[in-house]
Amino acid sequence: MSEIDPELVAAVREAWSRALGIDASSIDPETSDFFDIGGYSLLALQVIGGLIEHSDAASKERSFEIEGRLVEDLFQQPFCVAQARILQEERVVISESQANAS
Predict the structure, then answer these.
(1) What is the spatial distance between Cα 98 and Cα 94, in angstroms, rounded to a whole number?
(2) How many angstroms from the chain centroid is the CA of residue 83?
(3) What is the rounded CA–CA span in Å between residue 46 and residue 22?
(4) What is the pLDDT averaged over residues 16-25?
(5) What is the arithmetic mean of pLDDT over 4-29?
(6) Residues 13, 30 contacting (CB under 8 angstroms)
(7) Residue 11 phi, psi dihedral angles, 5° rounding
(8) Residue 18: its pLDDT value, please?
(9) Which of 4, 9, 100, 101 is spaced 20 to 30 Å from 20 by Cα?
(10) d(C-alpha 7, C-alpha 17), whole Å
(11) Whole-angstrom Cα distance, residue 60 to residue 67?
């Protein structure tokens, strides 16, 4: 597996930060568990929806497929890097500046 794009990791980290109301610097992308730092299932869906909304996942069908993968993976591997890895595997383009636009 190639290295995960740091911009994708930063975008996921920033989305988590906004949703959880905590400073992004307090979220370690590799070890901070979304649910241990205050996340819950409905909030997870909102975060993932926001990431997809600010991405290049053009078609609704593709968006639903990617969201499904992200939701499933978040419950299995609740870390920023895991979410960024899926976005990268799906070749989704999102930048921190796009994620900050909401």
Answers:
(1) 6
(2) 5
(3) 16
(4) 95
(5) 94
(6) no
(7) -65, -40
(8) 93
(9) 4
(10) 15
(11) 10
Contacts 24+ apart (CB under 8 A), 58-64: none
pTM: 0.81
The structure tokens listed for 75 are 């419950």
Class of domain 6-99: mainly alpha
Tokens of 6: 């740091």
Radius of gyration of the chain (CA): 12
Place of tokens 């939701």: 71
Do you know the residue count of the chain?
102
One-letter-per-residue 3-state SS of 41-63: HHHHHHHHHHHHHCCCCCCHHHH
Residue ranges of the domains in the chain? 6-99
Q: Residue written as tokens 């960024």?
A: 84
Task: For 54-98, write each residue's pLDDT tens digit.
Answer: 676 655 667 777 888 888 889 999 999 999 998 888 877 775 544
